UniProtKB/TrEMBL annotation:
<protein>
    <submittedName>
        <fullName>Uncharacterized protein</fullName>
    </submittedName>
</protein>
Length: 202
């Protein structure tokens, strides 16, 4: 979808469907939603907000209601869609991915973005200490369950794999920010718009 053709008439409604939030949920949030703690550096949150600002500048304010919360929801929903529609038991074609590939990719990204230790020039290993910023979001319980089922199935198949839903969503967000840092903003804006309009957030 060309970014010049984006309209804002349905954006707010789709954002509402994405989070699943209604005013009634102010009283029943604990029943319908799960609190997720997204771990990132404060500059990552700032960079996400700048990305959203640039997105609105390009689309003439079509995504004025988009927040960092929504961005994280979109990244998570896109991951679920990829797993649901493209993950197969064996590699069938260029578009398909296996559970093993997804697991290995997540482990590599966790070690890259959230290393627990590092080796210095002398070969000595030391703990990595960072001041992480915790960004809370509320995820629909049904969406959270889909991710937890995937993580449980993956852990059953691969003994070296153990990951919480908080970790998974943190990895998805920080990986997106890493792509931004590499200068892929225009590509990411187009990809985000395509995902936003093609996904069914019901």
């Amino acid at each position: 979808m060309r970014i010049e053709k984006v309209g804002d008439g349905v954006v707010s409604e789709r954002l509402r469907k994405l989070t699943g939030f209604t005013w009634g949920d102010l009283f029943y949030r604990g029943k319908r939603f799960v609190k997720i703690k997204v771990r990132a550096e404060k500059i990552d949150i700032d960079r996400a907000e700048v990305f959203i600002s640039d997105l609105n500048a390009i689309t003439k304010g079509a995504f004025a209601d988009l927040s960092v919360d929504h961005l994280i929801h979109i990244l998570y929903e896109d991951f679920l869609l990829t797993v649901r529609e493209y993950m197969t038991d064996i590699k069938r074609d260029a578009n398909s991915i296996t559970q093993e590939e997804v697991v290995k990719s997540l482990l590599v990204k966790r070690n890259t973005y959230f290393p627990r230790s590092k080796r210095n020039e002398e070969g000595e290993i030391s703990l990595v200490r960072k001041r992480w910023h915790i960004y809370d979001i509320h995820l629909r319980r049904d969406a959270a369950q889909r991710g937890e089922v995937f993580l449980n199935d993956a852990a059953s198949e691969f003994l070296e794999f153990e990951m919480s839903l908080d970790e998974l969503i943190s990895i998805l967000f920080v990986d997106f920010i890493a792509q931004l840092r590499r200068g892929n903003q225009k590509m990411l804006i187009n990809a985000l718009i395509d995902r936003f309009y093609s996904h069914d957030f019901e």
